[in-house]
Amino acid sequence: MTAAKLNIVPFVSVDHMMQLVLQIGVERALTEMASYIEEDFQRWELFDKTPRVASHSHDGVIELMPTSDGTLYGFKYVNGHPKNMRSGLQTVTAFGVLADVGSGYPMLLTEMTLLTALRTAATSAVAAKYLAPENPKTMAIIGNGAQAEFQALAFSALMGVETVQLYDIDPAASQKCRYNLAGTGLEIKMCASGQEAVEGADIITTVTADKQYATILTDNMVGAGVHINAVGGDCPGKTELHKDILLRSDIFVEYTPQTRIEGEIQQLDESHPVTELWQVMTGQVQGRKSPEQITLFDSVGFAIEDFSALRYIRDKLAGTGLYEELDLLADPDEPRDLFGMLLRKQQQMADGQ
Predict the structure, then answer these.
(1) Furthest C-alpha separation in the chain
(2) Is 250 a catalytic residue?
């Protein structure tokens, strides 16, 4: 995909993103995006890294998530407003930009509400490749909102999960999830409690939305050998796991300074040891060490994952036509004559052009 002029920036709308993902295939998109994420985690030390810039309010949070590998720059704007669901709005919305570091010019502007759902699930499955017990077949998903189906399909595609056990405090959410996953080949079990959902599960995913210190998993619910994929706790004052679970687990994070603020480990002393996932992927640290080990991926989402997703979408757009051309950047014939460009437009308007 090449824009005809540098001032024209490709824009991927929600409709075009849906068409692109369906054209690729959801499970294939998750698998391919996971490869991009894994590739970028393996060159982690090249990236600029900073905790996301967050503006918190009583209602939610608005965040900017920037990073760069020295060649490309990416950022995402994203919000998290759990109360939105009560008024028919999305809890999370997002858009993002990929830019050329050399010129500073944007190369892509895209919706990232759908794309964030895909990259979150893909990241979860990538982490599980290194941390989950061998050959997992059963997965519990507690919290069956907008992210649940993506998690199920990612773990099916990348990890070979065959059975998904669903629980949500709102039975309608679980019914929605079961309906959406019909025909995927997954065996779906509806559960009446979180305890029932985790029984026999090799992997436990928690992905709830409420901004509060919650106890979605209690210590007695977690047996030896499981992998916990904790997705829902992603901002200060929002957790899902009882502290005792953390003390029994080997904890893996994306970027420690951010996760200390936002993740499950905000419940622990700052000296409590954690391992960054990139260290496992590069072979510096071992992930799962024994069948009895409890591993915990304390996932809060990090900018490099969004960078990977933006790279992936840019690469997949070539030849599809699934984007709009936005006249986004001022491009005067003489770079120093921006005001002259405005005057020429004034003359064109006067001439009725």
Answers:
(1) 78
(2) no
